[in-house]
Automatic annotation (TrEMBL):
InterPro entries: ATPase_NBD, ROK, ROK_cs, WH-like_DNA-bd_sf, WH_DNA-bd_sf
Family, similarity comment: Belongs to the ROK (NagC/XylR) family.
PANTHER family in the cross-refs: GLUCOKINASE, ROK (REPRESSOR, ORF, KINASE) FAMILY
Protein name per its UniProtKB record: ROK family transcriptional regulator
Any Pfam family hit: ROK
Organism expressing this protein natively: Actinomadura vinacea
Top-rank lineage group of the source organism: Bacteria
SUPFAM superfamilies assigned to the protein according to its UniProt record, in alphabetical order: Actin-like ATPase domain, Winged helix' DNA-binding domain
Amino acid sequence: MTAAGRSRLLALIPYDTAVTMADLGRLSGLSRPTLADMLHRLQAEGAVLCEPAVASGGRGRPAQRWRRRPPQGMFAALAFSRDSVRVRVASSDDRVFAEREARVNVALDVRGALDAGRRLLHECLAEADSATDSLTNLTLGLPCPIGDGGQPQPRGFLPDWVGFRPVEWLRDWLPDIRISVENDANLAAVGELVEGAGQGCRDLVYVKLAPGVGSALVVGGRLYRGAAGYAGEIGHVQINEMGHPCVCGARGCLAMELYIAARHGTGGKGGLLALTELFRRCDAGDTAAGRVLGRIGGQMGEQLGALANMLDPERIVISTADVPPHPALLAGIQDGIHRTALPPVGDLPVIPSPLGIRAEPLGGIALARGTYLTSPGNL
Ligand SMILES: [Zn+2]
């Protein structure tokens, strides 16, 4: 068994639910004899547990089930968004946990952002009465695409992070723990699956409008990253070929057009501030603000409708980070979906995120624990 084969198989075995050898065969593509041999070796070294077979009442021998042995110790999530960092540490059973957050200009100040992350992690560990050597797994969340092998692709998204290697920085400081890197929207989607609007859901689209547009796809109960790690970049679909230049190098991308529309709607305030301001004005009875929200939602919804035609998800979860999404925005999104999706697909529920940006550290902890698995092609 090679080291790569070992970690590839281990990543397919959850900590908290047991899977059969048939499940693992399907996910890994390995033959039954090869799998049996690898599983017994992993069992011998204590990395996996074999649960006794339970007769199902059907014919044939009942199947043995396998799960990962939970690591003892603490898990951590270091979740960066464009303008803040959130840190959470938790024990394997979640009985002990702590969470902190700080505002910092993540995109333009990599050192400041990482220093804030380190300080908050120390504070969380102190509150949980733990030390850094009790950490076993850490998930780093970043608001940029994460390419093959967990390499962040910050160009155009996080200017000050270009050429910087955050995992190496963490390894210098935390040499003995397993570190994985994940896109911020992917973290949040997992958080929603664990504790939010995605509970019990196997096919989900998650959208974060704040201050850019990020999305994440959950297909068949698994986070889907795509071949190069760029799956879900709906914000960079061109909706206006004569539109404004975008950070990605293209022109008229959905994210940029929504940003400009929100800015115009408030007379100059940009990004998330504009959206929050539009929510406030709409609640105060400003019909013009309501129309802007409806138009922004409609443009977003038209793209989501096209995506829904492809994926046929059970539901779409919308987050506007620190504030709940306004009903006028959600109604616009639903209208846009109806314009572009087939009738049965377009009737899917569009649900406001109950967790907001807190979904990100929660998802980071779930991924650090191995509760939610990544796509088999991206291990
Ligand atoms: Zn773009």
